[in-house]
Specification:
The protein is about 10% helix and about 35% strand. It contains 14 helices and 56 strands. The longest helix is centred in the first third of the chain and has 12 residues, at about 275-290.
Length: about 1000
């Protein structure tokens, strides 16, 4: 640990990363000093909200083999920690790329972290030394152009921090970065991205920032200033990608050739502030020696004249771009420094009306003070009870109608909210806006959750409709209200349960909190939100951290409503993501018992998850999450062929890639229990995407596309395999994985927990009487139904889901009964019945709230039956907001960097599916198996079980392919980015 009287920073020891990265040796925690701030193994007592930071050299990180204290600071000089090691890949799959670009373990890395006695910043000096015994090139070439390898950092600020980049982006790096790359294509040797002087964050009680020391022509952006523009300087940072809470940036360029035993170094700074961007900017001005004046003020309530706490003051530069941000303290005060010049400021709050920017000027050495008065919000008070008179956990949604802005093509970021100045997103109904139909222009102004049936919150004044809900088992209550400035409006509500789920408990087995680096949701808020959505049990599955909700369930007095289950999501960067539950909690471990994943086989990870089981390996659930997600999906990562669920097909004309695919497949294990077939709002991952019936305008990049055909790449590979279709194919092979649905919620607003959810039959439905072991046994019995609105039960010959029905010989008549329940506010249209994964009957539903459909079929061999209910006309908005933005993936980042090299991974043209869409009702059951001849041995109707590692095979896998030449940049990027 580095610490002085002002800050504390923890550097990881050697070994595997306790964060989201791979190796030790990087910054893992950082906070201000806060009195008696010494924690223990049970937890810290500070306010660390930082995830992880580590230096990168091309695609290598420092694989630390030595971490030592070089100076303890007792001499009054800076304390120093030095990390030494070799280069290590982020992913074992990119070892070949790094070897081609940087050599084979021939470079030595060192990072020195230094903290002065009174500093609130850590000075970080990264050094690269050539130990190969020969001259080493540090460049590659493409098209005759030399490309120097840029060096930089990967910073994982964590989702509880809002990232700020001065200029056009402000707090909106998510959209502005790709828009900038698209609008300003660059040429080699520059790379696409956004250039800035520093990166900062806004957070609750703590903020972070990074900036570099001037490096002249060895600064990557400055060397390419003719491309990046006149504002580029010798200390600029170039941001090529922003992915979830990952932000990568380059700032240094080494020499083209590194002599034997020669080294070079770069220095940058990691600053720790008090919660706003302005505090980071003050440190930046201090370190860089920039002349400044002072800017201060007090924000007052226009009615009471009292100071207004915790509002944001955005400072714009003379061009009207976000330049700085202050957060007011408990008295409404703020202060900071700015370089001399002309500016404007704006008070930003999601609770109060927005006033226009006001101009001001700064003079060197002088203070500019302001005391603006802001209009307060209205107070909304909602009291919620159920039919028994009990106060119940519930959700309140405030829905408004925006002014007509010109049709469906107008981005709401341009008129409804402004992400760059730090406003929150306001979800819209995703219906084409019509000027004379206000119901097409609805948006969510605010959402609130209560654990005890009482809500009192400040909301922007206006005319709204209040929606009160408690998940999919309850009716919806709405009321129109006018919220006035400074006044209290009270609404009393009674919620009525209308869906009977006797014997079932509903749960979400994929939930994140602030213990995950990409979630800012507090544990108290997480528990409140899952109870408010009507869930009966909740599994904590933070990334590589074992979390227990039980203390918060007790503190909030939610024992009668919610069963907490201890778990974790083992998050790898090369195999996929896997949940384990219920687990033991190891309070003596910093990550509560999680373990290393890097360069390990799937079976090893599954074994380790089961070894952590609270009730032993046999009663521990191992779950595969989002199996077909791009670089995060198990089946995608291991290149499981979506047509056969077996070995990947050889790629035409790409022997090298095909052999890499074969190596990946060898890591496959099928030793898991649950398969996540529905993940949140990711509808493109649910069913295999087909070419639409009405073709979009060209280009297609596919010759003669046939409507209704499976969408494939030119190689013949399925472009968007669906998890349900994968599941059917595995069931056809005799593998009985329980299909489940989860929200994968990382927040509450826009990522509603429990949508979707899984209903598990345990024989009782009072959460107070249910134990986590009963839930495990329920999953293993397969009596589970997945719901995104409707509650659907399937019976075959009177037997429920998970049963095996015995017959007396083929052919055999089977009677199928499906009961569909829903609250009146959910609209459904069709029931589809599948036998052995094939649709055999479709029934139009009458959209009644409780319906039973009976049908009969003849089967001539062993089979399984599944029921699916859909609704495609009326979305679940506003109870479940739509998906308004496509996900960012690491592949997007690689594609952006590869673009100037003439490499693209988009081979679908306009057949690429449109990702953003509303959320519609959906449900699917687990199977009932039919043993036609009654011999007790169910014969799988499909192909044999896939050949996985360790199983017998006719011939050994092919040997590894030769390494591509270092100049074969296209092959290297294709290997890293995948085949699509």
């Amino acid at each position: 640990m580095l610490r002085n009287g002002r800050v504390r920073v923890i550097i990881q020891d050697k070994g595997f990363s306790r964060g989201f990265g791979v190796y030790g040796g990087g910054i893992i925690d950082a906070d201000l000093r806060r009195g008696a701030d010494v924690g223990n193994a049970k937890g810290g007592v500070g306010n660390d909200r930082f995830a992880e930071m580590f230096p990168v050299f091309f695609l290598q990180a420092v694989n630390a083999n030595r971490v030592e204290v070089a100076s303890d600071g007792s001499d009054g000089k800076p304390a120093r920690i030095v990390v030494r090691g070799g280069g290590g890949s982020f992913l074992s799959n990119v070892d070949l790329i790094n070897t081609a670009a940087l050599g084979n373990n021939e470079l030595a890395y060192q990072v020195e972290y230094s903290l002065g006695p009174d500093d609130r910043f850590v000075k970080m000096t990264s050094t690269l030394r050539n130990i190969s015994g020969a001259v080493r090139p540090l460049r590659t070439s493409f098209g005759g152009i030399n490309i120097s390898v840029p060096f930089g950092m990967v910073a994982l600020f964590g989702s509880s921090n809002k990232v700020f980049v001065p200029g056009n982006a402000g707090f909106d790096l998510r959209f502005v970065l790709p828009e900038t790359v698209k609008a300003n294509p660059v040429t080699l040797p520059a790379l696409p991205g956004l250039v800035t002087d520093f990166i900062a964050t806004k957070g609750e009680g703590v903020s972070y920032g990074v900036f570099a020391e001037p490096a002249g022509e060895n600064n990557f952006a400055y060397r390419n200033r003719d491309v990046y523009g006149p504002e580029t300087n010798e200390a600029s940072l170039e941001i090529p990608f922003f992915f979830s809470s990952f932000i990568g940036y380059y700032y240094g360029v080494g020499p083209d050739f590194l002599q034997q035993n020669e080294s070079f170094s770069f220095t940058q700074y990691f600053a720790i502030g008090k919660g706003d961007v302005a505090d980071i900017r003050d440190i930046y001005h201090q370190v860089r020696g920039i002349e400044t004046g002072k800017f201060s003020g007090r924000i007052r309530n226009a009615q009471t004249l009292r100071g207004v706490a915790n509002v944001s003051v955005i400072v714009y530069d003379s061009a009207g771009r976000p330049f700085n941000q202050h957060t007011t303290d408990e008295n409404g005060d703020f202060k900071g420094t700015l370089p001399p010049g002309d500016y404007s400021y704006q008070v930003v709050s999601d609770r109060m009306p927005m006033l226009p920017p006001e101009p001001f000027s700064i003079e060197a050495g002088k203070t500019t003070a302001i005391e603006p008065k802001v209009i307060p919000g209205a107070i909304l008070n909602v009291q919620i009870r159920d039919e028994k008179g009990r106060r119940v956990p519930a959700k309140v949604i405030v829905v408004g109608t925006h002014d007509y802005a010109g049709g469906e093509a107008v981005d709401p970021r341009t008129f409804l909210f402004n992400l760059s100045r730090g406003e929150r997103r306001r979800p819209v109904d995703q219906i084409p806006d019509l000027e004379d139909e206000p119901e097409t222009r609805r948006f969510v102004e605010a959402q609130f959750w209560t654990h005890n049936g009482s809500i009192g919150e400040e909301v922007r004044p206006g005319d709204y409709t209040i929606f009160v809900s408690r998940g999919m088992e309850y009716e919806l209550v709405t009321e129109d209200v006018t919220l006035e400035v400074g006044k209290v409006t009270t609404v009393d509500v009674v919620l009525r349960k209308s869906v009977r789920t006797d014997g079932y408990v509903s749960g979400d087995m994929h939930l994140h909190s602030m213990n995950s680096i990409d979630s800012g949701e507090s544990l108290r808020s997480r528990v409140t939100s899952v109870a408010a959505e009507g869930l009966d049990f909740a599994v904590a599955t933070d990334h590589n951290y074992i979390t227990d909700y039980a203390p918060y369930v007790t503190d909030l007095e939610l024992e009668q409503w919610l069963v907490p289950v201890v778990g974790l999501e083992m998050t790898t960067l090369e195999l996929g993501h896997f949940n384990g539950y219920p687990l033991k909690l190891d309070l003596a471990s910093g990550n509560r018992g999680s373990f290393a994943w890097f360069n390990r086989k799937a079976q090893d990870i599954f074994d380790d998850l089961r070894s952590l089981g609270k009730y032993g390996p046999a009663d521990t659930i191992v779950q595969v999450n989002h199996p077909r997600d791009n670089l995060l999906g198990y089946f995608t990562q291991l290149r499981v062929d979506a047509d056969t669920m077996d070995r990947p097909k050889p790629q035409p004309g790409s022997t090298f890639s095909s052999q890499i695919d074969a190596v990946r497949f060898e890591n496959l294990s099928l030793d898991f229990d649950n398969l996540e077939i529905l993940n949140g709002k990711r509808w493109e991952l649910l069913r295999t995407v087909r070419i639409p019936d009405v073709l979009p305008p060209p280009p297609y990049a596919i010759a003669d596309p046939q409507p209704g055909a499976i969408l494939r790449y030119g190689s013949g590979e399925i472009a968007y395999p669906g998890a349900v279709d994968d599941w059917f194919k595995l069931l056809n092979r005799g593998l009985r994985f329980t299909g489940i649905g989860d929200s994968d919620s990382h927040g509450s607003t826009y990522e509603e927990p429990g949508w979707p959810r899984s209903f598990v039959y345990v024989g009782k439905d009072d959460p107070f009487e249910v134990r986590d072991l009963e839930i495990v046994r329920g999953f293993k019995s397969h009596n589970v139904t997945v719901s995104q609105g409707p509650f659907v039960e399937l019976f075959v010959n009177g037997e429920p889901m998970g049963s095996q029905v015995a017959g007396g010989g083929a052919p055999r008549a089977i009677d199928v009964r499906v009961r569909v329940q829903k609250p009146s506010w959910i609209k459904i249209e069709y029931l589809s019945i599948y036998i052995n994964g094939e649709p055999v009957r479709r029934h139009a539903l009458n959209d009644v709230d409780d319906d039973t459909i009976e049908d009969s079929f003849i089967v001539d061999r062993d089979a399984y039956v599944v029921a699916e209910v859909t609704g495609q006309q009326t979305s679940l908005f506003p109870i479940v907001t739509g998906w308004e933005e496509p996900p960012l993936t690491l592949q997007d980042a690689v594609s952006g960097i590869a673009g100037p090299l003439g490499i693209t991974f988009d081979t679908l043209g306009n057949l690429q599916p449109v990702m953003p869409r509303p959320v519609y009702p959906y449900a699917i059951t687990n199977p009932v198996w039919v043993d036609v001849d009654g011999d007790g041995a169910w014969a799988a109707p499909g192909n044999p079980i896939p050949v996985a590692r360790g199983a017998a095979r006719d011939e050994p896998p092919p040997p590894p392919a030769p390494l591509p030449a270092p100049d074969d940049v296209r092959a290297l990027f294709k290997l890293f980015g995948g085949h699509h």
